[in-house]
From TrEMBL:
Pathway: Amino-acid biosynthesis; L-leucine biosynthesis; L-leucine from 3-methyl-2-oxobutanoate: step 3/4. It comes from Dyella koreensis. Catalyzes the oxidation of 3-carboxy-2-hydroxy-4-methylpentanoate (3-isopropylmalate) to 3-carboxy-4-methyl-2-oxopentanoate. The product decarboxylates to 4-methyl-2 oxopentanoate. Mg(2+) binds at residues 218, 242, 246. PANTHER family: 3-ISOPROPYLMALATE DEHYDROGENASE. This is 3-isopropylmalate dehydrogenase. Belongs to the isocitrate and isopropylmalate dehydrogenases family. LeuB type 1 subfamily. Pfam families: Iso_dh. The keyword Manganese applies. Substrate binds at residues 96, 106, 134, 218. Its main location: cytoplasm.
Length: 351
């Protein structure tokens, strides 16, 4: 098949890990006879330096017409002054909004070989396989903000339509997994959460084959640590999802391991590792490329419908996590390129 992929390497380790992910996509194209074309564009701090804007019009236009977008990371100390007129993160928020990607999928698996790196005891980590579905376009991130000298407000708003579309996505995904959805809210305190809960409840009636449970976000923060293997699909609003998925990432052993997909109505999507620009290790060739490579696998699955290819990449990554080489964040000595090359070799075995 033919596909047009826009790459947005961005800042910090973004270019290093994106290059590794593109190398893996190239191997997929070569092995299976697909034609992927890539168009590279600016976003984030590097875009501010070059054009004064965190999301230049050329980048946005290219992303809007692409089959999929592969992003590295944005931000870094050079642009982190909170009073700066423009910030790199604005580019990413604007891109998500413009693409209409409302469902952020963050799968969490704990590889047995890395269980020792996790803060939990090994037996708790057996069979952890959670898919977080975080709402991405509403809530406190996008509500009106006010500020006087001694008072600040952040409006948190959700519409039934916003809750319904992300909930449906979560239930559909649960049907391809273990048929269980946990909806996380704070319905004992927040009105948005009561709307969230009643909407989820109503949507659930259309999916009688999927088991639904509700959890309050404070309980969920605890339960993720005490019984992580209980969960299948976890759906929640923007802010709760942001916090819970960072907590969950700690269970995997390193932020560098986890991928994400942001999806809207169509097939196009935005794919990025969940880690940030990691300025402390940028430019050294030591960043873990696994999160970016697994994001490329999600791109193949969700935007291009290439499930077999996605599974082959995931199997290759699992081999490398099992046998090494490992980057420093997971206790090894290897650089980004050595891990990439090992994944490429393992891919040929699984393809
Ligand atoms: P940002 O503001 O862009 O999120 P940050 O300073 O919060 O940047 P993160 O990217 O969130 O940095 O990373 C947090 C920690 O995890 C850092 O110590 C970083 O080195 C490490 N880390 C993140 N990504 C990777 C990776 N791909 N490989 C190895 N270590 C990583
Ligand atoms: Mg960070």
């Amino acid at each position: 098949m033919k596909a047009r992929i826009v790459t947005l390497p961005g800042d910090g380790v973004g270019p290093e890990v994106t290059a590794a992910a593109v190398a893996v996509l190239d191997a997929v194209a070569e092995h299976f006879g697909h034609e992927f074309s890539y168009e590279e564009h600016l976003i984030g701090g590097c875009a501010i330096d070059a054009t004064g804007e965190p999301l230049p019009a050329a980048s946005l236009e290219a992303c809007k017409s692409a089959d999929a977008v592969l992003l590295g990371a944005v931000g870094g100390p050079k642009w982190s002054d909170p009073h700066a007129p423009v910030r790199p993160e604005q580019g990413l928020l604007a891109l998500r909004a413009a693409l209409g990607v409302y469902a952020n999928l963050r799968p969490l698996q704990v590889h047995p070989a890395l269980a020792a790196l996790s803060p939990l005891k090994n037996e708790k980590l057996k069979h952890v396989d959670v898919l977080f579905v975080r709402e991405l376009t509403g809530g406190a991130y996008f509500g009106a903000k006010t500020r006087t000298t001694d008072t600040a407000t952040d409006e948190c708003k959700y519409t039934v339509a916003e809750v319904e579309r992300v909930t449906r996505r979560a239930f559909e995904l649960a049907r391809g997994r273990r048929h269980k959805v946990t909806s996380v809210d704070k319905a004992n305190v927040l009105e948005t959460s009561r709307l969230w809960r009643s909407t989820v409840q109503r949507v659930a009636a259309d999916y009688p084959d999927v088991k639904l449970e509700h959890q309050l976000v404070d309980s969920m923060a605890m339960l993720l640590l005490t019984q992580p293997s209980h969960y299948d699909v976890v759906v929640t609003e923007n802010l709760f999802g942001d916090i819970l998925t960072d907590e969950a990432a700690a269970l995997a052993g390193s932020l560098g391991l986890l991928p994400s997909a942001s999806l809207g109505e169509g097939k196009a999507g935005l794919y990025e590792p969940i880690h940030g620009s990691a300025p402390d290790i940028a430019g050294k060739g030591v960043a873990n490329p696994v999160g970016a490579i697994l994001s490329a696998a999600m791109l193949l699955r969700h935007s291009l419908g290439l499930e077999h290819e996605a599974v082959a990449i995931e199997a290759a990554v699992a081999d490398v996590l099992e046998r090494g080489p490992h980057t420093r964040d997971i206790g090894g000595q290897a650089g980004t390129d050595a891990v990439r090359d090992a994944v490429l070799v393992a891919f040929e075995v699984h393809a």
